Amino acid sequence: MRTIFLLCLGLLTVGITYGQTDYENNGYNLKNYCEPGNCLYFKFNNDMNYPVGSTEVEWTMTNTEIAVKRAGSYLVTGDLAIIGKDMGAKLNFEVHFYDADDQLIFKKETGIFEFYSEPNRAEPIVFYGEFDSDIAEKVDFMDFIVISSEVLPYYELSSDCYGPCKDHQLNVSIKEFRKS
Asked: What are the residue boundaries of the structural domains of the chain, listed by start?
């Protein structure tokens, strides 16, 4: 009886570990730091899967948020998971800011950066930037565009920022955003 119990417990553990379909992530982080009137907050309610519309998803980003302080700073956060064991990615994004007339008033490219996440875990991704307060006052809507994406084995990446390093980047960026 004890052997059967241990076997069932072992199979359950394996099933939970390898059968997990949801990614462990960091949730939404910015709403508490974005005071209405002084800050515009936007969150994407749906996951961003890349390539869009493909059945062969290379990576997924959840909990994507953008906050713009009227004083002239912005912060983009999300939880990014690269699909596939031991895979990483070289990514390049662009943030677009629009006014109430749907006119593009500012855009900023992240530049190519390298990213890795442990299997079944999403790691925080963060971009902080500043622009003129006159532009920030006009922002009504924001969008997030994928410029390029290349998935490759993690050992081909030169970045050594994983797990705690990404958490630290997130915390530092939130502090900078709060101070601005």
From this structure: 21-179
Per-residue b/e over 89-121, b at no fewer than 16 CB within 10 Å?
bbbebebebbeeeeeebbebeeeeebbbbbeee
Model confidence over 51-97: pLDDT tens digits?
998 889 999 999 999 999 999 999 999 999 999 989 999 999 999 99
Q: 138-177 pLDDT, tens per residue?
A: 999 999 899 999 999 999 999 888 888 988 999 999 999 9
**CATH classification code of 21-179:** 2.60.210
Residue 29, burial from CB neighbour count under 10 angstroms (0-12, 13-18, 19+): buried
What DSSP state is assigned to residue 145?
Answer: E
